[in-house]
Amino acid sequence: MTDSPTTAAPPNPEKIKTIRAYYKLCQKPENRCIVLKDKTFFNTLPTLLKDDSSDVIRYSVKILVLLTEQSENIEQLLKSTELLPALSEACENITNPSVNYNLVLVSSRIRAVKNSLEARKAAAEQEPLADAVRELDKGGTTLHRKFVGRKSKQVIMEFDADEFNEAKKREVERILLKKKGVISVYITENNAIPRAVLRTIPTIEAKEIALAVFSAGFEYIAQIVKVEGVEEKFEMYASEMQKGIGVAKDFPEYLDDDVLHVDPASCVITNEMASRGAGQEGGWFSSITSFVKTSLW
């Protein structure tokens, strides 16, 4: 008596019905981000590519074709460490020509975005300001924020309160971070008057900072310095600088009392400084004590 051959498990109608519902949902681009936020479905996707039902696999691949039409969605898919291996395995095991074609299409899209992200990361390491400026352009708040205590000098610039607002604050940070030689930017207030406390390399002059700020649409800025212990203000106007008059000299730097009360979340530094780490001598430090000890006053 011979054993009867093993039969494949019958397809699960409810599972197929659910996958088809997700496919219909993904046909509208505005719904795709909602699908990607569904943690259960997101975590199940790699498993669905190995399902016993050819219908489940076919609809899962169709969903992936729709989800990979936009790079933003692909970046979300890349958060799954199991998806690419599952796609590679499915390409080897599935013989249906149309499904296999779609699998190759999905894989190529995902790998293209993955390679692009890796290339951008490598480029950002070569260009330390790039990531910080991009985050400011997007209104991001995930910038590296630390105190800086390497060999540098402090420049304090004061603004007209009537010209200053939150949008201008962002624009000032963005422009000054682009300025070569600027290490950190801290926006604060003194008696309700906005100020920018900058750490720069020693060769940066106040007039260079002023010109950068004027390019953001400001008409007035003043450099705040201490001369023989007395605070003095040297005012500059965009209209005068355009005519070549009223250009400030590079006045002495000093430690403003306000620096001792800074909020670290408001001090923006470049990626280069952040990557150096606190373990290196002469690098940046995350404490106010180290900041004061390593400054040049």
TrEMBL record:
<dbReference type="InterPro" id="IPR016617">
    <property type="entry name" value="ARMC1"/>
</dbReference>
<comment type="subunit">
    <text>Interacts with mitochondrial contact site and cristae organizing system (MICOS) complex components IMMT/MIC60 and MICOS10/MIC10. Interacts with mitochondrial outer membrane sorting assembly machinery (SAM) complex components SAMM50 and MTX1.</text>
</comment>
<keyword id="KW-0472">Membrane</keyword>
<dbReference type="InterPro" id="IPR011989">
    <property type="entry name" value="ARM-like"/>
</dbReference>
<dbReference type="InterPro" id="IPR016024">
    <property type="entry name" value="ARM-type_fold"/>
</dbReference>
<protein>
    <recommendedName>
        <fullName>Armadillo repeat-containing protein 1</fullName>
    </recommendedName>
</protein>
<keyword id="KW-1000">Mitochondrion outer membrane</keyword>
<dbReference type="GO" id="GO:0005741">
    <property type="term" value="C:mitochondrial outer membrane"/>
</dbReference>
<keyword id="KW-0496">Mitochondrion</keyword>
<comment type="function">
    <text>In association with mitochondrial contact site and cristae organizing system (MICOS) complex components and mitochondrial outer membrane sorting assembly machinery (SAM) complex components may regulate mitochondrial dynamics playing a role in determining mitochondrial length, distribution and motility.</text>
</comment>
